[in-house]
Amino acid sequence: MFKFRKVLVALLLFGATVGQGAVAQDSLGVADVAVPTTLDPVTAPFNMASVRLLTQVYDNLLFITPDNDYEPWLVTDWQVIDETTWEFRLRDDVTFHDGSDLTAHDVKFSLDRFLDPDEGAGAIAYLGGISRVEVLEEHTFRIVTAKPMPTLLFAMAFNTWIMPKEYFERVGADEFALRPVGSGPYRVADFTPGSAATLEANAEYWAGAPAVRSVTWRSLPDAATRMAALRAGEIDLAINLPADTAVLLETSDDARAAAFFPLLTYSLAPDTMHGGPLADLKVRQALAHAIDTEAMLRDLFGGSGVQTSHPATTDTLGYNPELQPWVFDPERARDLLAEAGYPDGFDLVLYTRQDADRELTAGAVASQWTNIGVNTRMQVVESAVFIESRSAEVTDQPRVYLDLWGTAGDSFFVTPWYTPQSSWGVTYSDPETTSLIEEAASIVDAERRTDLYQQAWQQLYDDVAFIPLYNLPLYWGINEEISELDLYGTQYLYLFKVTK
Amino acid sequence: MTTFILRRLLQIPLTLLLVSLVVFLALSSSGDPARLLLPENATAEQVASLRARLGLDQPVMLQYWSYVSRLATGDLGQSLSYRRPALDVVLEHLPRTLLLGGISLLLAVMLAVVGGVVSALKQGTTVDNIIVAAAVLGRGVPTFWLGIMLILLFAVNLRILPTSGMGTWRHLVLPVFTYAWYLSPQILLIMRSGVSESLLEDYVRTARSKGLPESRVIGRHVIRNSLVPVVAYVGMQMGYFIGGSFLIEAVFAWPGIGWLSLQGVNHRDINLVTAVVLVTALAIIVFNILADIANLLIDPRISYR
Asked: Which chain A residues are Cβ-neighbours of B164 within 8 angstroms?
């Protein structure tokens, strides 16, 4: 077959770079749950696995620190000209992997591509507020937003990988997706879409050449295989190991399980939009009181994890420290149900996605609710089906959704409780909360913004728009020889400071 | 024989059309790719715009019609996640699956034939009991579990083989062994019963009384006759075999079409999954035809009307 030679060459190249057994000293092996199918930031699948790889090859305009703040990166400083206009200055010493200089033209080119609705980039959800990008000089540009957009800076640290305009226009999108050029600490030496990549250190990187000379990136979707690869010494970093697998590393001398808390926490979202018992506040309060999250953490997850009071963590803007986790009180729960007119309880469906921790949680919640008379049937469904069921127009039974939610700092309300911006469907809608959030989203003053978000959380909490559960740690398996690896709540990964 | 082959060849387009319809309907009625491709906090307008761009806002049957008309020209559409022609992506990954499947099947058949013959010849003895027990055990052990266990033993503890992926011949050892373990038992049992039946046939007695050496009696006559059900079985079970290869590819991260289709399903990449299924369906049909032809060659007494 005419493709066979390509496959043979790919096989040989692959064999030469990967699968030799233990990883060499100046190279690092990473196994993630997936490897993107293209290396073009605009067309790569929009998930954390893609982000982790892309971040080594490209630079964002700003940099996210481990405690969720942003710092100058490609952009050195900025000025607010008016409510909707920002002016930024770029570093002038950054070069792309092909030697060309990074200028404001490349920034405009990249942002325009992200914003182009025809491209369908996932980043548009974060950058969509931008109306246009204007180049003022070689290293100065302006961004004009449709309305005041305080989340702009955060978006610039997240999803603005800068691509070289000249190179892209010369080679075309298809070639760029396979052989990209960025300005990041690593250049792409080899890439097998969806499967593996080999990265080499960019010696001219403006922030200093990375300590580790080469990085091999592999897609190992199965967690057991990822773990095996780490223990066999084939890789140095295994992303996202389930808790029960990570525990096995305690007896290992070569690798450790590093735990960190993500920004996403487990919460329940009762569907209040279709009438029925869940539309009654007392019923929702009853459901909240019926759950013993402390016992769940202790019995299901070995005590690791913290109770939450709302789907935000302490270092996200808008976190309200006055809110408390719900008190476990099944007696009160039964009384509330009776007061609401359901002394004999009712039937309910609990939806969640296929995932070990979610299923454990859902099972425990379902049995605790059944104990107070609310007969709960669990529906564990595949991810895409879960999303579809969230957006169902008609439902035949009361539904509650269990999932991980949170804010990525500065309150991107990625939630089912904020009407205007959830394409997956809302489970709760309140005009007052919505206007609080919208007001907060349009003010640039951080203190005022925080105050408004806290008010919004208070209202959502009081109205039981959600039932908070807990925050469970994520585990990454790391070779003991690795140091300087920062772990982020956002699940980002920066390798350029890592040494081995 | 030629008419038979021609008739079978004509069935191919019809079968493929039917398969493509079933897959297309199943995938398009179970999720909205646009919603899945964008994060949760995308606005409804952004989702609608992506949906329109991907042509998903048209009625399903219209989408299918344009799909089928392009299919007739060999165009299986663009893969949503790879942003390249779906057929190209599948054809790139196909040789890896064929390599793994081919070697595994060869090993499985060799093991099964040898095991089946020995077992039948020594029927009732300890050797026979051991072989049959091994076959039954082989059928009962979950492939997934076996694969992980082998990885733990040979890759993690002994470190003599790699855990996963593709690259050198070493990467083939564990997946091939696991896959052969999955394929072999049933073939072995069929072979065994075929051989023990053939041994009772008149022609065996005749051959022996003619003075033929036992090795020729077995090697030339008995095995040849017993192969017919084996070949028929292998041809019929192609779907089952290919399904098993998907499992192997998941455990060992072997980037073949099974692994590819898992990715495709996760991303609701309709064109990619349909392309995998069509190519697989075509492969099953072709293998079935080859199996029938092989049987015709092995046993001239068989005729297909």
From this structure: 220, 225, 228-229
What are A425-450's pLDDT values in tens digits?
A: 788 888 888 888 888 877 877 788 88
- Cα distance between residue B52 and residue B48, in whole Å: 6
Q: B79 to chain A: which residues are within 8 Å by CB?
A: 37
pTM given for the model: 0.81
Q: Tell whether B163 is within 8 A of chain A (Cβ).
A: yes
From A481, A214, A196, select the one nearest B164 (Cα to Cα).
A196
Name every residue whose Cβ is closer than 8 Å to that of residue A332 and which is 6 or more positions away in sequence: A286, A289
Of A214, A36, A34, A13, the residue nearest A121 (C-alpha): A36
Look-up of token digits 């015709």: B296
pLDDT tens for B229-277 read 888 888 778 777 777 788 899 889 898 998 898 888 777 787 888 889 8
Q: How many CB atoms lie within 10 A of CB A483?
A: 11
**Cβ separation of A384 and B31 shorter than 8 Å?**
yes
- Predicted ipTM? 0.76
- Which chain B residues contact residue A383 at CB under 8 A? 36, 266
**What pLDDT is attached to residue A365?**
96
Chain A touched by B95 (CB under 8 Å)? yes
B38–A122 CB contact, under 8 Å: yes
The DSSP symbol for B85 reads B
Could you give the 3-state DSSP secondary structure of residue B78?
strand
CA distances from residue B107 to B155, B179, B237 in whole angstroms, order as listed: 21, 9, 16
Rounded to whole angstroms, the Cα distance separating A466 from A37 reads 36
Q: Which two tokens stand for residue B218?
A: 């077995």
Taking only the tens place, the pLDDT of each residue in B16-56 is 888 878 877 776 776 677 777 676 767 777 778 878 877 77
Q: Do B43 and A421 touch (CB under 8 A)?
A: yes
Contact B238, B287 (CB under 8 A): yes
Quick: pLDDT tens for A312-327. Answer: 888 777 889 999 999 9
